[in-house]
Design goal:
Helix content: 25-40%
Shape: extended
Mean pLDDT: 85
Order of helices and strands: HHHEEEEHHEEEEEEEHHH
Number of domains: 1
Strand content: 15-25%
């Protein structure tokens, strides 16, 4: 998709993303003496709206749908999942199955029992291979059904089941790591359904986590984690890069935000830091206090409670044996 899109629109998208990243100083969670050491920051929601604006794409991320945007160009139709994560980061969440978790709790329990009898990871993988495959197939079917449903409900264009001009892709932006040259890498990879006919189990993530396991369909490597019932995918980050942009940080990001504030919320010309504040004279005659009175509130035993505020005094059960102070 990326290679086919117009250069003018890609440049506009690049300009918007780099403008946001240039303000990293404003959003960095850790204070550093040198902003150049920070990793560029991209807001995922801004990325989606910038993509939609630059490419005249239709926003599809309304409701429970698998795609974030759809667009057409030169007769080709693209269904796009939009993501951002660091170039050096690991697997990324692509689906969650909390509502379905109970359906395969028996499989999870059996995997755990097998793992208790195993001495090492290889044994865990061997004992649970059939169970891993059974669970992987169920997860893949649900994942594929969601993709089919999302495709059927696309708003940006009509996508027939046999339409060869419809392509599903992940479009990702991957900022460089801290202390590296500030860059944003543009990546793209297929957003296909999981190939049920080509599933292969790669084993668990470790002997201590036997219910978390890897599998592949020959295109992508997936990881299922049982605690949160999530499906993750390995995006093979550095091998999907199709463009890279150098990031220049603003010298004073706060000043830029100040200018925006001036544009949106301009100061009144009649009031500034040096303006005189009007003094309002009160014509009401001040009354002179002649006498003041005070009194002690005792409990029924003529003792003063430690907390003797009137409301507290009446609202609390008698507890003078613990906290009262006898009056002299």
């Amino acid at each position: 998709m990326w290679e086919d899109l117009p250069s003018s629109k890609k440049n506009e998208y690049k300009r918007l993303i780099l403008a946001f990243a240039s303000l990293t100083e404003m959003f960095a969670q850790k204070v550093t003496d040198n902003v150049e050491e920070a990793a560029p920051i991209i807001n995922s929601k801004f990325q989606e709206t910038a993509f939609q604006r630059a490419f005249n794409a239709y926003a599809e991320d309304i409701g429970n749908t698998s795609y974030d945007a759809s667009l057409e160009h030169n007769g080709e139709k693209y269904l796009v999942g939009i993501k951002t994560f660091g170039i050096s980061s690991g697997d990324q969440k692509v689906a969650q199955f909390k509502a379905k978790h109970d359906e395969w709790s028996d499989i999870i329990d059996e995997i755990k029992r097998h793992a208790n009898d195993a001495e090492d990871k290889a044994t865990v993988d061997s004992l649970n291979e059939v169970l891993y495959m059974k669970l992987a197939r169920r997860i893949a079917k649900i994942r594929n059904a969601r993709i089919d449903s999302s495709r059927a409900n696309i708003k940006g264009f009509k996508a027939g089941e046999d339409d060869t001009h419809v392509h599903s892709v992940y479009h990702v932006l991957m900022p460089s790591s801290r202390n590296e040259d500030a860059k944003i890498y543009v990546g793209e990879t297929s957003y296909d359904k999981i190939n049920l006919e080509n599933l292969s189990i790669l084993g668990c993530t470790g002997k201590k986590n036997p219910t978390n396991f890897f599998f592949t369909d020959g295109k992508h490597v997936y990881k299922y984690t049982s605690a949160d019932s999530q499906l993750h995918m390995n995006f093979d980050n550095r091998n999907i890069v199709c463009d890279e942009w150098n990031v220049k940080y603003a010298d004073d990001a706060h000043a830029i935000f100040g200018k925006i504030a001036d544009m949106v919320y301009p100061k009144s010309p009649d009031l500034d830091d040096n303006s005189n504040i009007l003094e309002i004279e009160d014509d009401v005659e001040e009354l002179e206090v002649e006498d003041t009175y005070c009194w002690t509130i005792w409990n029924k035993n003529q003792e003063t409670e430690l907390f003797s505020g009137f409301n507290s005094f009446l609202a609390q059960d008698p507890r003078w044996e613990k906290i009262s102070v006898k009056s002299e």
